[in-house]
Amino acid sequence: MRALHIAATGMKAQELNVEVISNNLANMRTTGYKRQRAEFQDLLYQNLRRAGTDTSDAGTQVPTGVQLGSGVRTAATSRIMSQGTPELTEKETDVAIKGEGFFQIDLPDGTTAYTRDGSFERDSTGQLVTVDGYAVQPGITIPDNALDITINSEGSVQGTVNGANQTFGQIQLARFTNKGGLQAIGDNLFLETEASGAPIVNDPGDNSTGTLLQNYLEAANVEAVTEISDLISAQRAYEMNSKVIQAADEMMQTSSQLR
């Protein structure tokens, strides 16, 4: 019976939907995390009576026809790149982006990754790195005797060495035409893809690029109420599709008992 297969596609779709929602909820406290949303499309249709078919020699036509769908499939798990709330940390090397842009990170294999997570540290040489030890581009080294380290809204890293003000480097941000097309690889990192387009690198505040907030980190843009509401809707949709399978099974059982 066709209804069994159609309802099965609905259950599979809602199972994936719940997995996406659970990942969003699991990352509610992940710095710079961007929530995902499952998007669905209906499957191919079988035309039992095509709309517009002639029904007489006088030229009358079928106005709507008869089409039977074959279910649903997952089309995409799009990422919502809206701004997360900046949260005060009071740590001098913590930086949040207010607006568009990503920090550029050097991976060990030479690839450039991108992140909204500005929880930076200084390694043994004073270089500004991520919590995994990956260097921030362009390379910025802060001397071990530097005091009063500041990172202004335009990305200039400054401090005081032996009583004299010094500039240690300039943080730059990368923008993308389609930031939703970036490939997530875990560890709060993204990679450029053909869908995202090439990075557009600017100093913070230039060419529609966002500015920086020192002593802040960007929180995940996950809203618990929205996710729980979506979870309930997905659960109910899953239950209704299971009811369809149950009803189809009972109908088949009834027909098999006919004599």
Automatic annotation (TrEMBL):
GO terms for biological process: bacterial-type flagellum-dependent swarming motility. Residues 96-158 form the Flagellar hook protein FlgE/F/G-like D1 domain. Pfam families: Flg_bb_rod (PF00460), Flg_bbr_C (PF06429), LlgE_F_G_D1 (PF22692). Residues 5-34 form the Flagellar basal body rod protein N-terminal domain. GO terms for cellular component: bacterial-type flagellum basal body, distal rod. It is found in: Bacterial flagellum basal body. Belongs to the flagella basal body rod proteins family. This is Flagellar basal-body rod protein FlgG. It comes from Breoghania corrubedonensis.
